[in-house]
Amino acid sequence: MEVGKGQAMVMDGLFFLMICGLAAATLMWAGSVYGNKSFEAYRYIYMTDYAAGALQALSQLDYKYTVGTGDTVKANFLTEMGKYMQGEFDKGDTRYVAMVSKWETLCKQSPAPILLTIFTEQPNVAHGTRDKPIYLSCGGLLDTLKGDGGINTLKYPYYSSPAESKSCDVLRCEMDIKIYY
After folding, report:
1. pTM (global) more than 0.70
2. 57, 106 in Cβ contact below 8 A?
């Protein structure tokens, strides 16, 4: 009988260890599922906040650039964008280069590739209509489509800031930022 009691104790011990192992495995699985969902939720919050914050930063961005005469000119990103949209200068102009360099400074600080889309509903603008908006992008993930010269904004998944209506000089601009992940 002594052997039976010892054998029963060993079997009870093995069953207890098996139950503990199953409980530990279940807890590990539940913890990993919770961790993944939490990570995705925090990532969503961070990326959408970053995109909205980048749009606010552009709205308030003031900078200086030097013209050909050596004079320094103060400018605002949205004011210069409005003047570009009206056709006061083109891509080769110093004003455009200064404006895009400020955009690229913001891009270098981004945790992922971003795309700024700007257009206006007002008629008779040189650049940035609803049909052909202005795209400023960085990160190299966006493809230029063959044929129409547009940007394939749907190639990769993204988070987007809410579309905002801003004053671009005398124009009303609609703009948003997409951050790709």
Report:
1. yes
2. yes
